[in-house]
Amino acid sequence: MDAPSHEGEAFVEVDWRSRTLTGGSYTRCSFDVAALAELTTRDCRFDACTFVNADLSGSRHVGSGFLNCRFDGANLATATFDGCKLTGSDLSSARLFGLTVLAGDWSYTNLRLTDLRGLDLRDLRLTGADLTEADLGGTDLRGVDLSEATVRKARFDDADLTGATLGAIDLAEASFRGARLDLAGAVALAEAHGAVVAVAG
Questions:
Q1: Is 111-201 assigned to CATH 2.160.20.80?
Q2: How far is Cα 80 from Cα 41, in angstroms, rounded to an integer?
Q3: The whole model's pTM is what?
Q4: Which CATH superfamily is domain 1-103 in?
Q5: pLDDT (tens digit, 9 = 90+) per residue, 24-61?
């Protein structure tokens, strides 16, 4: 049987707690105020959908895509995103406590003002993401691609940025107190603060 395809449908206040969705496609659908706690999605695709004030706590998503979606006021506490794509989605006012992210592509996401402290975001792609004033204190960012991200007034204190890609970023207004950096990252940070780094050779 073909996976279900939905376009422009309203699933407002739907109760799908603990359900499993596999291979479905949802375009411009509304899941506002939906009860989606413990929901599992596998290889689903959500395009330009809204999850305003939805409860996705404890949900698990494997290989699913949430493209250009809005999560205004959504509860994503203890949710898991395993190899998922969230390109262009807005999570700036979502609750992200205890979030588990296993790689994936979160390029151009809006994460302004979010609390990402202590999360494990290893190998996540955050190209072009907006992390303005986000708190990533103590976050594991090893191997993360932050190319072209906006990090104005973001806090990376005590974060591990070993192997992170920091190309084309203005690091000058972000805080890196106690952060762990490899040589390339340390050079990028020093240059952002006006230092001239001499390369021996």
A1: yes
A2: 10
A3: 0.92
A4: E3 ubiquitin-protein ligase SopA (2.160.20.80)
A5: 999 999 999 999 999 999 999 999 999 999 999 999 99
